[in-house]
Amino acid sequence: MANRGGATRPNGPNAGNKICQFKLVLLGESAVGKSSLVLRFVKGQFHEFQESTIGAAFLTQTVCLDDTTVKFEIWDTAGQERYHSLAPMYYRGAQAAIVVYDITNEAPLVQQLMIACIASPNIVIALSGNKADLANKRAVDFQSYADDNSLLFMETSAKTSMNVNEIFMAIGGDCQKVSHRLAGANSGRNRGAPCCSN
């Protein structure tokens, strides 16, 4: 019988590459563009009239960051008030969160940021000011807020794809740093493998 375990698949990660898997949740009010951001990142598509998410949608995307293959497990949560009680089920165990807001709308961020912060003490939080293609209708700018609270911040446009890949790649890099830090802190404690492995 042939040995099938040692062969490297042509389209798989290179031998010796690290493989990381991160759970990422998108939070934000309804109609800020969460689903559009994910669709643009995963499929490179944009639909002008995106239907509202019911409960949550799940998608995956794999990217290469230097010598690491990063797989995102992305949970796109519904923004409508009636689904807020379901949020803990989706963000539990997440390593990263993107809190999305619409730069043309003055809706507060407090609830979404609180949800992201209580998800995990080591969660990577990014703030995405979406609909940057409508900058002439800007109502809010949270750049200084993000700086003051050490949050990753980018203004994005799912419509034009501005900074969409960049925000996910930046999150992947920050998640790797957190993963390595936690792996070092837990070495010798036998608490299970970190999410990055060779």
From TrEMBL:
It comes from the Eukaryota. One of its GO terms (molecular function) is GTPase activity. InterPro entries: P-loop_NTPase, Small_GTP-bd, Small_GTPase. Keywords: GTP-binding, Nucleotide-binding. The keyword Nucleus does not apply. Transmembrane segments: none annotated. Belongs to the small GTPase superfamily. Rab family. This is RAB5A, member RAS oncogene family. It comes from Lates calcarifer (Barramundi). The lineage of its organism: Eukaryota, Metazoa, Chordata, Craniata, Vertebrata.
